[in-house]
Amino acid sequence: MDNANRCAPKALAAQEQADPHTREIPEAATAHDMCLPRHKPIRLEQLQIPSPKRNRKFLSGWEGFFPYYAGYPEAFAHEVLRSAQLPPGAVVLDPWNGSGTTTLVASRLGLTAHGLDLNPVMVVVARARLLPPSEASHLKPLAATIVPVNKLSPPLVENDPLLDWFEPEMAAMVRAIERNIGFTLLGENAVAPDTVRLDQISGTTATLYVALFAACRRMVRQFMSSNPTWLRRPHVGEAKVTGDASRISSLFQENVTAMANALTAIRLPNEVPSNRINPQVLSADSASFSLPRQSVDFILTSPPYCTRIDYTAATRIELAVLDPLVSLKSHELKRKMIGSTQVPIHKPEPRSDWGPTCLGFLERLRSHRSKASATYYYVTHLDYFDKLVSSIANLASTLRPAGAAVFVVQDSHYKEIHNDLPTIVTELTAAKGLVLARRDNFQFKRSMAGIHPHSRAYGRPAGGVEAVLCFHRE
Q1: Among 339, 440, 435, which Cα is nearest to 53's?
Q2: Which neighbouring-strand residues pair with 412?
Q3: Tens of pLDDT along 402-454?
Q4: Long-range Cβ contact pairs of 256-261 (< 8 A, separation 24 or more)
Q5: 184 to 74, 146, 193, 207: CA distances (angstroms)
Q6: pLDDT digits (tens, 9 = 90+) for 213-263
Q7: Largest Cα–Cα distance of the chain, in whole Å?
């Protein structure tokens, strides 16, 4: 048995002992207890790096059911990981896993993958994407047992967040389907599905939740804003979604059928091993999650962009569906996210290890003449960089001495002030022992910030730079 396979049971056993909130590995299972593999250094100059921008023409078929904001497409992750020439069983980490592109591609290449995301919706989505085509035939029969709803479903509670968008009868039907997914698929835990962790559910269960997400998103599309990542709540006095409650059931079943057909049509790449390793996809904070020190061979990720995207607002309806299964409620999650639009409870202070580019940007922002620059916007940017630095320090400790990290980072603007985030990330990672070995820039013509019509008043460029930053451990 090779070294990587010998150590895997220890790593997994240690993870099972981890605290579900901090996900810290017990001290006894850290570096010296793990028989960590020692691989040859990764040659970053040989990496094949295509454009990391997503192309909408690929958002069809199976991938069309996962239209969540992501940093890069499958083709990008596949080329980077394939050209890294990692040995079988090498450990790949994505601490901001989102919809699960890294974990999916790493799994198909026979690599051991860990994907983390603070948003429980994205954990469900990432686990659903991992469902192999061989499981497609089970989906439609399972959906038939979930709809029509059974008598085990409890009545709708008064403060159910689904009531933000749906009239009570419609909300009750959504909640009944969500409960039945749990009752049908969680076996002996069916009497109390609320106690089940989302990061333990199967790919089949996750896929059925995604089918329900898509049905709900279609029903509330009247509340989508001009920003494609933002789902608003109805205004006071505005009509909520009503009508025949069975409409949700029909949409759910239609989605399951379409997903089963799309999954069946997937043609996996030739290099996908028959015994591929199932990734660990966990709901966890990148700043506090603790993998064993020097246990990761390769990090491939895209940190949350500093463009004031409210990632919880982008998944409001999905969070409402999952409400009984999550301990961290939407307002608490929003505050913990990197890039939160909420003022932090404790104001961070800028530090020298953030680097001169970051400190210069923050000072120009604080001194800007526009309203709230020196108060709200300055403090929320401090919060962003404070969380980002903490996360990168945590990630650097997990990387083995000959390991490598690839970050996809996009620049942005505050008013007319350029936020050179790729350079900022380069400087603050250097302070944590990661050395930039290569940078590939890709120009793009349209940014998320450019959607706002008032952004043109500042005379800044409409697009920007998507930088692929390649680091090795110092």
Answers
A1: 440
A2: 419
A3: 899 999 999 999 999 999 999 999 999 999 999 999 999 999 876 555 555 55
A4: 256/139, 256/140, 256/142, 256/143, 256/207, 256/208, 256/211, 257/139, 257/140, 257/143, 258/65, 259/62, 259/65, 259/139, 259/207, 259/210, 259/211, 260/136, 260/137, 260/139, 260/140, 261/136
A5: 32, 7, 10, 14
A6: 999 999 999 998 776 667 888 999 999 999 998 899 999 999 999 999 999
A7: 66
